[in-house]
Amino acid sequence: SDDVLVVFTPSGKRGRVPAGISVLDAARKLGVDLDSVCGGRGICSKCQVAPGAGQFAKHGIAMAPDALTAINEVEQRYDRLRGLQAGRRLGCQARLQSDAVIDVPPESQLHRQVIRKSASERVMVMDPAVRSYFIEVTQPSLHDPDSDFDRISSALAQQWQIEGLTADLPVLARIQKVLRKGDWQVTAIIGQAEGMAPRLIDLIPGFDQQPLLGLAVDLGTTTIAGHLVALDDGRVLASDGLMNPQIRFGEDLMSRVSYGMMNDSGAAEMTAAVRAGLGDLVARLADEAGVSARQIVDATIVCNPVMHHLLLGLDPVELGQAPFPPVVSDALSLPARDLEVPIHEAARIYILPLIAGHVGADAAAVVLSEQPQKSAAPVLVVDVGTNAELILGDETRVLACSSPTGPAFEGAQINNGQRAAPGAIERVRIDPVTKEPRFRVIGVESWSDEDGFEDAVKATGITGICGSGIIEIVAEMRIAGIIDRSGLIGSPEQTGTARCIPDGRTFSYLLHDGSETGGPRIAVTQGDIRAIQLAKSAVHAGARLLMDEFGIEEVDRVVLAGAFGAHISPLHALVLGMIPNCDPARVTSAGNAAGTGARMALCSRAARREIEAEVRRITRIETAIAPLFQQHFVAANGIPHATDAFDKLAG
Ligand code: FES
């Protein structure tokens, strides 16, 4: 017959196709993922295949040497200009003459899979909302005087099955010139967001090789972090972060909300500040990657509800008081120019849905990244910042709440507290016998009691204690008997160390005396211990509340999310009681899970659908009105909380 059998690897998809069909068309017929940007014109080389590279025997096919047509002129030309790897063919040029096995190498797969480097190492499938398509547009004539836009629209419909094109004014203003400059051959950049008509984002003369770029932002209360991502394969081209310029209006969210309440133009000032911050971030990322910000054609943002409202220019006042209703909680897709973000002027920004008025899109991004809804046993995800966001779930259901920890874990309201930066003490050990401390400083490899430390630390100095250091020192002070169960620092007589020094009516523990060399004296005060007790009890009580609701006494594992979570020692967090009792080996860190979630939503429309559906199923628990919260909060005050972890550390 005139049919031939073709098997595609690695998908294993097979079927009979008419003899003489191109490999690209055969792939499309059989639903095989084979990329193409130029639509089979031999320009883009995205359709490369390796004929016969699969295992014939396994597929029961004998492949003749001339199963494919010989290399044609288009391929020869391509080979001359750009070089075609040995054994490779352009799928749009090679035609099937008899049975064949065709391998589709990873870089030719349209929805290529990307392994995410997170705790769970899951696979993500590339399915971006913006892609480019090469089209040939018919020229107008007196008999066919349709508009230029209609011509582009019907070329896309005929050549790529993209129907119902729309466009914004800035692009319309350019299309006449571009069509003529490209001699009616152009590359159309098309946005195909969920539930929206396809949009022409840009039109470029000829075949355009420049990769499309996307921006994923984790907009935090304290810092704004962003990744610049290539939309074809998800690789990160640049990452950077900066302070949220809103900090000058208040360190934490509540002080920003009250600034907005007290000043008529307060919210508007904060909106302008955060948008300017995003602008700076875009400029930095583009600069680092050596690209133009105009190449950024899609973006995603995750943030907490207050940042969400302030970014959008919505009044955050209602978020500051029960019952905390947000103006809008659904996922949003908004023109970048409305938010004054200086990326491509026709780009849209996708903002992940809020889970509730006090559990944000950042928590939704954490759910997307950590997938508690797919866990067989209950997993607790804790994202600690100025607020702790807590998610507890398994495949049956997912619960979420937030708990007001205050900024203590970020070093604020702590005598010698500071943010994690070079010079900050991040690890602490106290000898239980001598009560002498040793510590590590960010930016220095060695511990304070090791050779070379003195010299190494000169570059940064010892400037304060950051969040992870504070957690460790409080736990270590308890293990060494410097504080009692209630958190009270003992006198020199009680503790047997002169490092406990009188400080008003209480005592402080002297961690480091740098005064001789002009540095600060770093001490932990009774007030510091109290602030940490309040913060850790808030996290713990939130977790307990979720566990009550879930009907469990213990969680199977704990995931610490966020930049801070990545640096916490699980054992010390358990001793302190920041997290509920759990096998320390089952406490892991997910790094910046919110940022990972933002990147997933940028690379995959399926991820956007998934999180929108999942957020609707999440049960929100309100800590502020739960009567048991206060009870759990008080009960969580003592140290140690987890005695097994205490025994383990105390040796
Ligand atoms: Fe573009 Fe084959 S599809 S070169």
Overview of this protein structure:
This protein has 651 residues and is of the alpha/beta class. The chain has 5 domains: 3-108, Ubiquitin-like (UB roll) (Roll), CATH 3.10.20; 129-205, Ubiquitin-like (UB roll) (Roll), CATH 3.10.20.880; 213-361, 2-Layer Sandwich (Nucleotidyltransferase, domain 5), CATH 3.30.420.480; 363-404 and 542-650, no CATH class; 416-524, no CATH class. The protein is 30% helix and 23% strand. It contains 19 helices and 29 strands. It has a 6-stranded mixed β-sheet, with helices on both faces. A 6-stranded mixed β-sheet has the order 28-27-18-19-20-29, with helices on both faces. Strand 25 and strand 26 form a beta hairpin. Helix 11 crosses helix 15 (570-576). The radius of gyration is 29 Å and the shape is elongated. It starts with a strand and ends with a helix. Residues 2-108 form the 2Fe-2S ferredoxin-type domain.
What is the compact description of this entry?
Residues 2-108 form the 2Fe-2S ferredoxin-type domain. The protein is α/β, with parallel strands linked by helices and 651 residues long. The protein has a 6-stranded mixed beta sheet with strand order 14-13-12-15-17-16, sandwiched between helices. The chain has a 6-stranded mixed beta sheet with strand order 28-27-18-19-20-29, sandwiched between helices. Strands 2-1-5-3-4 form a 5-stranded mixed beta sheet, with helices on one face.
